[in-house]
Automatic annotation (TrEMBL):
Keyword ATP-binding: yes
Protein name (Swiss-Prot/TrEMBL): DNA 3'-5' helicase
Reaction(s) the record says it catalyses: Couples ATP hydrolysis with the unwinding of duplex DNA by translocating in the 3'-5' direction; ATP + H2O = ADP + phosphate + H(+)
Phylogenetic lineage: Bacteria, Bacillati, Actinomycetota, Actinomycetes, Kitasatosporales
DNA-binding as UniProt keyword: no
Keyword annotations from UniProtKB, A to Z: ATP-binding, Helicase, Hydrolase, Isomerase, Nucleotide-binding
Source species of the chain: Streptomyces violaceus
Length: 770
């Protein structure tokens, strides 16, 4: 080998999309180039516009564009491959430069920029290899516009854009674009930082916010040498072209998240945190991706061993399966073996298992079973002073939530957010009822998951207290081994269960879960807890203030804002569900602590069709409409861009409000429309039907290429029959129920990657953005 080739990120992404035959020519090209870049057949030559760019022949029609990046430490010539293009798309005006903010190599390609903007800027693109029969493509001078439209970014000047890190060649153009379509064209092939800054400004972000949230995180401490390409290469995200690259490119886009983190994502993955840290961000901004890479980073730092010092946990079982699969594809089996992956209830159950004598365990039941027991108890006592729902919530949120152990503690317990105040005699009565209720559950040999979480937290807190006591004692006696004491108390091997804990979907965990997790990792060590979640997506009633639970995230909270999943069009509508403009009392969302969170700057650079909002007269009509939509979608997803057959199974989903509607929808689709379905359950899709159907709760954390939300009618979202009475009886609860329903719709709508259809019968849900 006389030359080493590296692939620029954008070039790799372009390669995914090329035809198989071009890819194969490209592999041959790499082979020859590495052997001898001067091989005459490669026809390597400098572009006239930017002499740092060389073009070389991949095949009759395709060219590789390369820039020399010095000589590697082993004396081998180094080249960066910045693009693979059809020869017609190679222009002299292509440019490569070192970015003054990040110090990375950036490739600027104006061939994707719209003609109208180029014309206004007086830029003419000159083909590097003009077709013999055609003249160079000079662009006609533009007729003077009668009324010039105002520029989109007229509030800014070139100096500001340059200072924020926009590539020089784009600045003049960015200042004259007048529509968001022109901006999209300008930024399609633009370097990442330019894209982030310009989209941020266009989305209305304040210049100081852009500086703080976009530029500062990727800025070098010192201004880079703009001519030193070898140094710049070391800062640029590239893939070395070796024999593995062929497989990688064959894997295509699916691999992108494994390799290319956005700089703001990467910073969170690699940062050293002195204590617990938290990442928030709207749907699809890559919180799960960051959590997975964080696990990888932490696993790579571990000293050798066979233990599992890292815990990766989330809220539900099916998401655990997904995390395991994705982590397995990201890290080596030896590192994977050091990670314990379990959902939060499973962890609690494990702790209880360890602390319960064989045969003494209780069966865990869901809240609706407990509610039935409460109803029966009140009926037997003929006691109508309190609603069973109210009592169950009082128990869950106040008594269990704050670990209230005695009646006198309950008299003094905080009941913030619980709606109606309770007098002392009322509290006394509630306490008695709840005592009878828990005794009843006990007798039946059952407990709720909430109770289990509380018990597990207590065991873990006791365990942590023992560890600390042992440590303090050891310090007192001057660090000597505690052989006698340890042998008698069985504490020799007692230590914190995990060195690092990474939590996804954090917004739905209960206070008891946090207490348990806090006690499972040493609070004195850095990088102990890494927490990813979005409170706009909270769909269970578990609000927490982490600070009060011993988890201090102050100064270690960050937000991701760029969606990698959802298109601009879908995102705009989804945002109106959780942040409705017409709502006079603005809805606020907490930050898992005492502050608030928001979705400012939340954006996407992906485009797609506008979401469909379709009214129907009846449920039956709506199902018929759904069948027609699904049939069309299925046909469209059955072939790829080149007409080759594709399996559409598992890429389309239908989301409804409740289990009854799941059954009705599946029955209709299977019996009347010949469409096979798989129900989304707690464990994931059941069976191998082509369309996944599930309730909104089941869609948490998932994504689909196309999604239909059906039955989004008034009275269903939210379910008026269940919550209407709270409007007067318990207004705070009414608010909470409304907010949960909004968040559910928000979660559902943001599962769609490319296309979203929302329909209803009779009147639409008041939460729909219309
Ligand atoms: N750096 C990246 N490069 C390519 N794809 C990415 C990147 N980051 C995230 N993605 C993709 O974006 C999608 C959403 O990512 P992810 O599930 O991590 O988002 P999230 O913030 O956890 O979403 P949600 O809050 O809705 O659960 C996934 O398909 C993921 O592969």
């Amino acid at each position: 080998m006389t030359a080493r080739l590296r692939l620029y990120r954008k070039a790799e992404q372009e390669l995914y999309k090329l035809d198989r035959s071009v890819k194969s020519d490209f592999y041959n090209f790499c082979h020859h180039f590495r052997d001898n870049p001067e091989l005459p057949g490669l026809r390597k030559k400098q572009l006239k516009g930017d002499s740092r760019i060389w073009s070389a022949r991949v095949s009759k029609d395709y060219r590789a564009l390369l820039t020399p990046t010095g000589v590697d430490a082993d004396g081998i010539e180094s080249w960066l491959l910045i693009a693979v293009r059809h020869r017609k798309d190679v222009y002299e005006e292509l440019q490569v430069a070192v970015n003054r903010v990040t110090g990375e190599i950036e490739f600027v390609d104006l061939s994707v920029v719209g003609q109208s903007a180029l014309r206004r800027a007086g830029i003419t693109l000159t083909p590097a290899e003009p077709e013999p029969e055609t003249k160079p493509q000079a662009v006609e001078p533009a007729p003077e516009p009668v009324l010039a439209a105002p520029a989109l970014l007229s509030a800014y000047d070139a100096g500001q854009l340059r200072e924020l890190g926009v590539a020089d060649q784009l600045i003049e153009l960015a200042l004259i674009v007048t529509t968001s379509e022109e901006l999209d064209q300008l930024l399609e092939g633009a370097p990442l930082l330019s894209k982030d800054v310009l989209y941020g400004l266009a989305a209305g972000m304040d210049i100081d916010d852009v500086r703080r949230e976009i530029t500062a995180p990727v800025e070098l401490d010192e201004r880079p040498d703009l001519d030193d390409f070898a140094a710049a290469l070391s800062r640029t995200k590239v893939t070395t072209v070796d024999d593995d690259v062929r497989d990688a490119i064959e894997e295509g886009d699916f691999r992108a998240w494994k390799v290319f983190l956005h700089p703001t994502q990467e910073r969170l993955v690699h940062r050293h945190y002195k204590g617990p840290a938290r990442v928030s961000g709207g749907p699809g901004t890559g919180k799960t991706i960051v959590a997975l890479h964080r696990v990888k980073h932490l696993a790579e730092q571990l000293p050798p061993g066979h233990s599992k010092p890292i815990l990766l946990t989330t809220f539900t079982k099916n998401l655990t399966t997904d995390l395991r699969l994705r982590l397995a594809s990201l890290i080596e089996p030896e590192l994977l073996a050091r990670v314990d992956i379990a959902h939060i209830d499973q962890l609690a159950a494990r702790v209880l298992g360890e602390n319960t004598a064989p045969g003494r365990g209780k069966q865990r039941v869901y809240d609706h079973v407990a509610l039935n027991e409460m109803r029966q108890l009140l009926a037997e006592l003929d006691d109508r002073r309190f609603e069973p729902e109210f009592l169950l919530e009082e128990w869950e949120q106040v008594i269990l939530g704050q670990a209230v152990a005695t009646r006198s503690d309950y008299f003094n317990a905080r009941r913030a957010g619980r709606g109606r105040a309770l007098t002392r005699p009322e509290r006394n009565h509630v306490w008695k009822l709840i005592e009878q209720f828990t005794a009843r559950l006990d007798k039946l040999g059952v407990e709720t998951w909430g109770q289990a979480a509380e018990r597990a937290a207590r065991h873990e807190i006791e365990r942590a207290a023992k560890i600390r006591a042992r440590r303090e004692y050891k310090e007192e006696i001057g660090g000597k081994d505690l052989i006698h004491r340890d042998n008698s108390s069985g504490m020799r091997y007692l230590g914190y269960r995990y060195r690092h804990i990474v939590v996804d979907e954090a917004q739905d965990l209960r206070p008891a879960h946090w207490k348990m997790l806090r006690a499972m990792a040493d609070p004195d060590l850095p990088n102990d807890l890494f927490i990813a979640g979005d409170t706009h997506q909270r769909i269970y009633d578990h609000q927490v203030a982490l600070g009060a639970l011993g988890i201090n995230i102050r100064g270690r909270a960050s937000r991701l804002t760029l969606s990698y999943r959802t298109t601009k069009e879908i995102l705009a509508e989804a945002l109106r569900v959780v942040e409705p403009k017409e709502n006079s009392g603005k809805i606020t969302y907490d930050d898992l602590d005492d502050g608030t969170d928001n979705l400012a700057g939340y954006r996407s650079v992906l485009h797609g069709p506008k979401p469909g909002f379709v009214p129907y007269a009846t449920w039956e009509d709506e199902l018929a409409g759904l069948a027609a939509t699904l049939t069309a979608w299925r046909a469209e997803l059955s072939t790829d861009e080149n007409g080759a057959p594709l399996d559409p199974s598992g890429r389309i989903a239908v989301c409804v409000a409740d289990r009854d509607m799941v059954s009705q929808t599946m029955y209709y689709l299977e019996t009347k429309a010949g469409i096979t379905c798989a129900e989304l359950t707690k464990e994931g899709p059941k069976g191998d039907g082509e369309i996944h159907v599930g309730t909104m709760h089941r869609f948490k954390g998932l994504e689909y290429q196309r999604l239909a939300i059906v039955g989004a009618s008034d009275g269903i979202i939210p379910r008026t029959s269940a919550i209407e009475r709270y409007r007067t009886e318990d207004p705070p609860r009414y608010e909470r129920e409304q907010r949960k329903a909004r968040s559910l719709l928000f979660v559902a709508a943001t599962r769609a990657r490319d296309a979203l259809n929302i329909s209803w019968h009779d009147k639409p849900s008041p939460f729909l953005p219309m």
